[in-house]
Amino acid sequence: MKTVSFMKMDDATPEDMQLIKDEAARHRAQNWLPTILGLLDGLKGNRFGYQVDRYTHSLQTATRAWHEGARTDMVVAALLHDMADDLSTDNHSEVAAAILRSVLDDEAVWVVQHHGVFQTYHYGPKLGLPADTRERYRGSPYFDACAHFCAAWDQMSFDPDYETYPLDFFMPMLEEVFNRPPKVWGDPNLAPTGANT
Length: 197
Hints:
Layout (H helix, E strand, L loop, with lengths): L13 H28 L12 H14 L4 H9 L11 H9 L5 H18 L19 H12 L12 H12 L19
């Protein structure tokens, strides 16, 4: 395997950096979707007290989005919104959004990034938390989309009797999204987007 000539990045040549960029792109093309599916698969089993496990919840959320006619980016966002639960439960929304930022559109990323805050509207008072925490984002053009995501899909998807589609149903959508050219290093679109981020 070809390697770079430097020991510290200050000494890198343009050819070195192109080699790294090319190798990263090759690795991504071969491994990114399997890695994402591994994160999703990791949600199997642990229910955290819910009637369905986090994997089923994810599939159910995506099924609800698809039934409503949501566009591909939002269905994939619904499927993967909790994929970082095992990595970082308390800020899983931000972690998932950071992962998805280079392939999903701004609205879908914003919804994933903020769904954790917006969900408190549905359960917060039962834990002594304010229900209006989401109001600080009222000025965002994506506020209504996130509120709907949580109300109609996310908070509804803990039903063991709901007819939930299997992962295979969503694979063409996942493949479409993860085969898109990613936003590249240094692209300002990799920064958080939308009003009142």
